[in-house]
Amino acid sequence: RIFAGLVAVLCPHRAREIVAAVRRDAPAHPSPNAGVAEAALAAALGRRLGGPLRYGTVTEDRPLLGDGPRPEPEDVPTAVRIADRVEWAAVILLALIWLPGRLDRLTRRHYSL
């Protein structure tokens, strides 16, 4: 869910579509976590992800997530760029949450000597 929220924040021009796709499509995915991320990315790209896939000789029929045409090879750099930005945003967000408490403990320890 954090991934989807960050995708919506980082792609504000597609935020409504991202929220709608996550609500509508993510529950259909066999993995509750992967479904949210895949639906968010599909909506951010304006593409449809999912469908049949193969693991060696086994074919698995997965639900379609998002609206729009199937992805093209040209969509890969955009998808990677979105994923990279979400990763950095998550790191920054976690640092902003973690650092103030850590710094407070360090300064209290330093000044209590």
How would you characterize the overall build of this protein?
This protein is α+β, with helices and mostly antiparallel strands. It has one domain (2-111). Helix content is 62%, strand content 13%. The protein has four helices and two strands. It has helices at 2-10, 15-25, 32-45, 76-111, and strands at residues 49-55, 58-65. The chain has a two-stranded antiparallel sheet with strand order 1-2. A hairpin with a 2-residue loop joins β1 (49-55) and β2. α1 (2-10) runs antiparallel to α2 (15-25), α1 (2-10) packs across α4 (76-111) and α2 (15-25) packs antiparallel against α3 (32-45). The chain is elongated.
Identify low-pLDDT runs: none
Number of domains: 1
The geometry reads as: elongated
What's the main sheet like?
A: 2 strands, antiparallel
Number of helical regions: 4
Distance between the termini: 43 Å
Report the radius of gyration as a whole number of Å. Answer: 19 Å
Order of helices and strands: HHHEEH
Structural class: alpha+beta
Helix content: 55-70%
State the strand order across the main sheet: 1-2
- Got a strand count? 2
Q: Tell me the β content.
A: 5-15%
Roughly what is the average pLDDT, rounded to an integer?
89
